[in-house]
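Re: the request from the purification team.
They wanted to know what the chain is likely to look like in 3D before they choose a buffer screen. I agreed to run a prediction and write the result into the notebook, where they can find it.
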Amino acid sequence: MGEITADDVSKFVKPKETAEDYYLKVFQKYKESGKLFRFTTFNWPAFLFVELWFVYRKMYLYGAMALVIHFILPFFIPEYIFGSSILDFIPLILIRIIAGFVGTPLYIKFAEKKITAGRRGSGTSPVAVFFLLLVEFFLGFSLVGIHNC
C-alpha cells in the first residue's frame, strides 16, 4: 500500500468524530491484509444519500454517475417515479444497496490516491452538496414538466 499512514488518512477524512474512527478502522484492516472489500461494513450514509454522499466525499465522478442513473432511469421505466407499485422502486433500491456496500471501499481507494498525489486536505465538500441539491431540484422539476407534456 505504500507509505500512507493512519495519520494521513485521519487528516484527509472529515468530519472528525465517528467518521474518522470508522474509516481509520477500515484503513488499518486494509493495510494489514491488502483486501479492502473483506473488511468493509454497510455504509448507511452512502445508501441513504447516494449521489449526495459521493459529492460530499469529493468523489464527483461517482456522484455524477449516480445522478445520471437516478434521473435517466425514469425514461426507461416510466413507472419508476410515477407508478404505484413497490416493484417500480426496485432499480432505485438496488442502486442504493450497491452504493451502501461499495461506498467505503471506493472512498478508501479515493483517499489513498489523493494522499499519494500529495493532497492532504479535507476529503469533504459541503458546498458541493448544496449545489448538487440545487441541480437535483431543477432536474426534478424538469422531469415532471417533461413527463406531463
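For the purification team: The mean pLDDT is 79.
Please add any questions underneath this entry.
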